Amino acid sequence: MTKIHNLSNMPDGTDDTLGPMRTLYLGQAAGSEKLYVNIDYVEPGAKSTKFHSHSEQEEFFMILKGNGTLRLNDEEHQVKQGDFIAKPAGKGIAHQFINTGTDVLEILDCGLQTKEDICVYPDEDVVYIRSMRKDFKLGDAIADFTSDPNAPTK
């Protein structure tokens, strides 16, 4: 059954705090199954997440309050209240918000919940495979691997 919820009365387990970053899981609280809707609260000087891209998870962000910097691949963009951006999946667009302002940066963060998503963290040269819940160092990649079952082994 669909129910109306309010930010002032969020159910237990629908918020998370990691140091200077807090997230409210609105979609989860409302019972969303395929879409996530969050509000991220980023303290001055803090980052919203590690710099990363998604293979399957499309995202949409809107700045609700404050201002900061949005890293998109090799570029940095200043963002402020009212700015919004869509980030299509599978395009290799790495992103991260940094609160460069003096007030809390509030970000509406929406996207698809995908079980098969793979995240790449270019700053750390790491890949995260969501379905396995495992991280791998890209520098450890096997350069001469083949899936050919009859190829000679070294």
Q: How would you describe this protein?
A:
The protein is mostly beta strands. It has a domain at 12-114: Jelly Rolls. It is built from 1 helix and 13 strands; from the N terminus they run ββαβββββββββββ. β11 (118-121) and β12 form a beta hairpin. The mean pLDDT is 91. GO terms for molecular function: isomerase activity; metal ion binding. Pfam families: Cupin_2.
In percent, how much strand structure appears in the residues?
A: 35-45%
Helix content: under 10%
How many helical elements?
1
Helix/strand-derived class?
Answer: mainly beta
What is the CATH class name of the domain at 12-114? Mainly Beta
The secondary-structure element order is EEHEEEEEEEEEEE
Radius of gyration: 18 Å
**Number of beta-strand segments:** 13
What gap, in angstroms, lies between the N and C termini? 59 Å
Please list the strands of the largest sheet in the order they lie side by side. Answer: 1-2-3-10-5-8
CATH topology of the domain at 12-114: Jelly Rolls
CATH homologous superfamily assignment of the domain at 12-114: Jelly Rolls
Shape: globular
Low-confidence stretches: none
Largest sheet: 6 strands, antiparallel
Average pLDDT taken over every residue: 91
CATH architecture of the domain at 12-114: Sandwich
Pfam family, one: Cupin_2
InterPro entries: Cupin_2, GPI/OXD, RmlC-like_jellyroll, RmlC_Cupin_sf
Domain Cupin type-2: 42-109
GO molecular function: isomerase activity; metal ion binding
